[in-house]
Structure formats: C-alpha cells, structure tokens
Specification:
Length: about 475
C-alpha cells in the first residue's frame, strides 16, 4: 500500500513536470499527502515501534525546522505566496521528520538512548549475577534469595531484549531498572556471608557520612549498631566503636543468636533502602526536569511558529519578515553566549541524562522570542501612553496605532537591534535559576557517593562515631 501511494503521487508529479497536468490546489495536497503517507507506511513496516517512538521524541524539534523552512521559502523565492511558503515548509518538515525518525531509532532502545547509564546497568547486573551465583552454591533456597533472583532476572531481561520503548527515550526506564536492581542487592543482605554484609555496610556508612540524605545521623547509628551485632570486632576496628569490656561467653541459644543476626541484617537492609531511594528519587527529579523542559520548549516553539505562519499567510512584507528573523537571531545569539558564559563544568559521577543539552536548546529560542517581544513592547509604549492620555483628558480614543511595518524597519527603528539584544538576556535569569536547582540536585546526589566526598580526618571521624 505504501509503495502504491508513493507511485501514485509520483505519477501526478511527473505529469505536472511534463506539462500534461497542472497539479495545483487540492491535487497538489493529495499528491504530496500520498507521497508522505506512503513513505511513512514503508518505513513503519521496516522499523515499526522504534520508528513511532522516535517520531514522538522528535516532535519538540519540528516547529524550529518548520520556521526555518518557512522563512527560507518566503524570502528565497521558493514560493509565490505566503500560503505556498507555509505549505512547502510543512512538506519539508514532514520529510525531515521521517528521515530523522528513521535515522535515530537507536535512541528508543536502552542501549542507545543513554549509553553511559546502560553500561553502568550492565556492569551492575553482571556483578550481582556473579554474587548470586556464589551464594546459590552455599545457601539453600530461601524467599530472600528468590526475591533477589527474580529482581535480577527482571532487570536482566529488560536489558537483554533491548526493546524500543518510550520509557527509554524519556530516560525514566533507567531509573525503573535501577530500582529493580536495588531491590535485588537489598534482598541479598539476608543471604550473603557475614563478612560481605559488613563490608558493604561500611561502604554505606561512608555514603551516609556528610550526605544530604534525610535522617542520616540516625541511619548511621542504626547501621553501626547493626554492624556491631553482626561483627563486634569489625565495628571496633573500622567504625571506632568501643566494646563494653571484654566479650563474655553467652549461654544464649542458637535461635536467639540467629534472631539477633536477622534483626541486624533487616536494619542494614532498611538503611540501604533509604540510600537507594534517595539516589533514585534525585535521579528521577533530574530526568523529570529535562522532560518538562522539553515539553515547555515544544509548546513555546509551536506558539512562535504559529505567529510566524500567521504573518506569512496574511502577506507580511518580505523585508519585515527578514528583519524579524535577524532580530530573533541576534537575541538568540546574545542569550546563547550568556548561557555558555554561565555554564558550569560538570562532574563525571552524576549523569544529567541530557538536561544540559535541553537547557542549551531552550535558551536561544526563549531569548529570541524575548528579543522580538522587547522590540514590540518598546515601540508600543508611546502608543499606549498616548491612548491613556487621550482617554483620560477627552474621553475619546487615540487615533495613533502601532505600525508593525515601521517597527521592524531598521531604517526607521535602528535601535531595535539594541533592544533585541538587551531583552535577549532576560531569559538567562530563568535558565540560571533552573541550572542552580539542577546543580543542587546533582550536589545532593554526589553527597552520597564515596568517590565525591572530601577527604576527612580519620581521628575526627573516630571521635564522631564514639559520640
């Protein structure tokens, strides 16, 4: 069917080129629509779900492509009128959309959307698989072991299938997979050897120390008490906890000892759960911020293109459209340079899942719109003042009105370039605040990473643990 539609549209275009048939009006729309629908069907049959997800992911970029194509068609003589320019731009945008969607389907899979996150998940999965294999050789099957296996297999299956889905393009799938792996490692605390449990608990103690995790002091006390119950010697050696005299032999039964060990492991699991939940929540906040920014960018771009399309459709002078485009680019460049000047060097520990790129794309668009809006506001201020004055003194309506052709005529309004550049800096305040909030999320995440902690005095750490 797709090939038939492409062939039918091609025949109409061929007859038009030969002069045998004038393809205009609805015939032109039908021929173009047939070509695009046919191409869509053919690509969909080959790529299927990945193609659809990729098209959805590229939607926020389409208004910008349409705007560039409309300006090029209107000013470059590719169209005879405003409606023709909009039509040509929309067709070109649709073609670009299809081609880009077909070429970026890898971004809909876990292995291609976020390569770093996928590699980290792979490494963590392999490590947990190896540890579970060792445990299975020495421990009988228990509910906790089955829970760990089920969680690991679920995450491993998702990564191995590498199936396209919107959750990977939106990056939320990585957080969901991390949560699954975290449930696995938490359940393993019940079945691993005591020395392994203590060693991972000591790392958790370092993660809590100085972190932004709520209730970290209480969590540290719980962790240290649990480690002491499992291995008092390790608690004394590595945590600086003092024993209350020499260890005395006890006459308690094995059941009582097992109960104490189980309670200690349960507490360690809850501490680990708190750490994992904190990290997953902060990572999810970063991803949600990126996705919200992308949707805001898309809505803003649609509104901006709608204004441009209306101006072109009503036959705005080409010189005015060229001036507006120039002012938009000036404001966008000023905003971009300001954004680059305020860009902070990131760290390799925390991944922002493309949030920095989204901010970089949104900045020029918002700055360009603000620059055009600033020029209009400056020009409209005297007209509004005259209207208010005439209304208050005579009760009549001011005769003066805003002439957009004059506003966007550089020979009559040369200061519009300066106004556009100045107003192009105003969105930097919003983006700087967003960047500060993002950096705060990253800082809180880094506070729970051992590799990012500042070196601490061992003596001070020992004194603090004794309190």
């Amino acid at each position: 069917m797709g090939a038939g539609l492409i062939a039918g549209g091609g025949v109409l275009w061929w007859y038009s080129a030969q002069g045998a048939l004038a393809v205009t009006g609805m015939a032109l729309v039908a021929a173009t629509a047939a070509e695009l629908i046919g191409a869509f069907l053919l690509i969909f049959l080959v790529l299927r779900a990945a193609f659809i997800v990729s098209m959805s992911w590229l939607l926020p970029m389409l208004p910008a492509v349409a705007a560039l194509a409309t300006v090029a068609a209107y000013l470059g003589g590719l169209a005879r009128s405003g409606p023709d320019a909009v039509f040509v731009a929309l067709v070109a945008t649709a073609i670009v959309w299809l081609l880009l969607a077909a070429g970026t389907t890898d971004r809909t899979r876990p292995s291609g959307a976020q390569v770093r996150a996928f590699s980290e998940l792979r490494v963590q999965t392999d490590q947990l698989s190896g540890r579970l294999g060792v445990i299975a050789q020495s421990v009988a099957t228990t509910p906790d072991l089955e829970e760990a296996r089920t969680s690991l297999w679920r995450a491993k299956d998702v990564l191995d299938e590498d199936r396209p889905s919107g959750q990977w393009a939106a990056a939320i799938g990585y957080v969901n997979t991390w949560r699954t792996l975290h449930r696995c490692e938490e359940a393993m605390i019940y079945v691993e050897a005591a020395e392994r449990v203590v060693s991972t608990a000591l790392v958790d103690d370092l993660r809590l120390d100085g972190s932004a995790i709520p209730g970290r002091d209480r969590l540290q006390r719980f962790l240290q008490a649990a480690v002491h119950d499992i291995d008092a010697e390790a608690a004394e050696r590595y945590l600086g906890m003092k024993r209350d005299g020499e260890r005395k032999p006890t006459n308690t039964s094995d059941n009582a000892n097992q109960l104490a060990d189980s309670q200690a492991r349960s507490m360690l699991r809850e501490v680990r759960r708190a750490i994992n939940d904190f990290r997953d929540a902060r990572t999810e906040d970063i991803i949600k911020t990126r996705n919200v920014l992308r949707r805001t960018f898309a809505f803003t771009a649609v509104v901006a293109y709608t204004l441009l399309a209306v101006a072109v459709l009503v036959g705005a002078p080409a010189s005015a459209v060229a001036t507006v485009t120039g002012l938009f680019l000036i404001a966008a460049l000023v905003g971009l340079f300001s954004r680059l000047n305020n860009t902070k060097v990131g760290t390799s520990t925390v991944d922002d899942f493309g949030l920095e790129d989204a901010q970089l794309l949104a900045g020029p668009l918002v700055s360009g719109i603000a620059g055009i809006g600033g020029v209009v506001l400056i020009a409209a201020a005297p007209v509004a003042a005259a209207a208010l004055s005439a209304t208050s003194t005579t009760g009549g309506v001011a005769a003066s009105s805003l002439d957009f052709t004059a506003v966007f005529d550089l020979s009559k309004n040369p200061l519009s370039v300066v106004f556009a550049a100045v107003f192009g800096l105003t969105p930097t305040l919003f983006l700087s605040r967003l960047q500060d909030e993002t950096e705060q999320l990253k800082k809180e995440l880094r506070s729970s990473y051992v590799a990012d902690k500042a070196a601490q005095d061992p003596a001070a750490r020992t004194d603090r643990s004794r309190e």
